[in-house]
Amino acid sequence: MKKYKNSIEYEVSGSYALFSEAVTRIGGEKYSYQVPTYQALKGMTESIYWKPTITWVIDAVRVMNKIQTEGKGIRPIKMSGGNDLSYYTYLKDVRYQVLAHFEWNEQRPDLTDDRDENKHYQIAQRSVNQGGRRDVFLGTRECQGYVEPCAFGENIGFYDDYGQWNLGYMFHGFTYPDENPKHDLVARFWAPTMRNGVIEFDRPDSANLDCRIIRENQTVKSFKSGENFRIHAKYMKKRLIECMFGDRALPISILNAAFHKVTRPISYNEGDLVWERDFEIACSLWKKHFNDEAKRHHDSKEVSMELNLERKDRDYLYGRLLALADYFERGVLLKQQVDRPTNAVKLMSNFIAKPYSTWGALWKQLIPYLKTMNGAEWFQSGIDDVMALFEEGDFEDNKTLSPLFLLGYSSQRRSLRNPTRLHKDESDKQN
Question: Is the model's pTM score more than 0.70?
């Protein structure tokens, strides 16, 4: 298969994957295809790095692990309220090698000024090394994926000498309105063949694909260089001036934007120092918001930037847990002279969306480090202290965390970085 000068190669793995077969979803059930679809792999690659200037083309995927499934009983929310019972069939213990390259999106002539191939290629390579700029999902959000660089074809795969396997008629992907001259939304289907574990994909514009038009002549939002930003900047300046001189609180939209930005540290190309600066600013903004709300409701429970060892808010405690995990793994990586983001940093946004399930996945990633550090009693003791503060049922609650998470994370991290505490941690390790 052909490799291009702007090709990227990466390996993505996870405990579960769900590449839903469309036919099985009619009755509310979901059954996974045996292999990832072109569209699923394109989505993973776009989570690693994407700009509207480029279009990713997936060249091939290599199935590394044995294909095996596991059924689970799920209680999805019904449109009319309440819950229903459905059975989803997931792929289990998956690992894939992916080969992809990017091309210019010829349907976006308004972005020709951004067509710098070397720039986009270098950013894409850095993003692969960092594990992606956004959360990577294996078909659906509950299936978290982990990305690392690889050389396509290296290492031993389960199907290396398997021969040919016809996978039948299946979904290929979508062609979106800004990716074709007629601006149609098109669904593509094909009948792939896996040869010795490798599937080579037909291009989205291939005549071999079975294409069905879903919607015709859709509107594509244009981009005018500089103008879009100037309009938004003018609007934001007006709102900030009203807050500064009109004795108004910051709009909740600005606070939420700050929260969502800093909880995706992998998306920062400028480095840790810029992220830490933005993170502390976001913490200060939300601290003022929480304290203003407390005063308005005559609540004496104010928030401080210092660690509160008695605070039992679920979101605050989950923030402390993630800070402990990050600090511990960062110390291990430093000792091993490994330069990469910690799993806590990689999973931060997913942790906020589903803290209970993500903590379970994160803990599995930390187990090998615990063994190398002889149990790390100081770390496990810190985790136990936080776990003991959760009210009954709070820890198992998997709902999205509020921005109070930021303050728990920040205060716990400040405490761990305190020289006195660091000295105590070193003493505990030696003992």
Answer: no
